[in-house]
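Subgroup meeting minutes
Present: P.N., E.W., G.H.
Scribe: E.W.

1. P.N. recapped why we're keeping a running log of single-chain structure predictions: easier to compare across weeks, and new members can see raw inputs and outputs side by side.
2. G.H. added today's entry (207 aa).
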Amino acid sequence: MKKQLLGLLVAAFMGMFSPAQAQMTAGCIAPDFVANDLNGTQWHLYDILATGKPVYIDVSATWCGPCWNYHNSGALENLYNSYGPQGTNELMVFFIEGDDNTTNADLHGTGTNTQGDWVTGTPYPIIDNGTIANDLEISYFPTIYLICPDRVIREVGQLTTAQLYAQRTTCPVSNVANANDAGITNSNACLNPSLASCTGVDIACRL
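Output recorded in log:
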């Protein structure tokens, strides 16, 4: 009960923030990740981007009510089914459980800090990894990001399937980052020179 109450308090606290107050700045390079999903399949973000596919990432927490509502809207599920690997194979979708304090049982809906079963019926990979959320500078859940093949990131929000699909057209068509491009993976500068400072490797731009 204490853990569940804490989760609700955190959710309420995070709900006080608006997208203008935090989050990774649009126009920055997304940090890379290599991680296993719940089925043990390993995924490498930059390898997917190198194929020319945009990647949509839903960073949520099992205890988060708005996350649960958006998850059950079917927007990302329909996007993945229609345009992911089993559809037209134009894009990729990931669910990142971003709270290190939640458990596998919470993801399956049997824990004490969850809104329900997040796994059953979800066709796209689920990755339980709070480090990825930290690297993406998540300050509230859910955060829905679009990462273009050139590794540029921006937040797109809780859109419908049609709206999410339309967002892919904002990605440069031919600007796919080379996996061996040291200027991309090791630079400490944003692609957008008007933005403030960036720190770290595989850049996380900060407000």
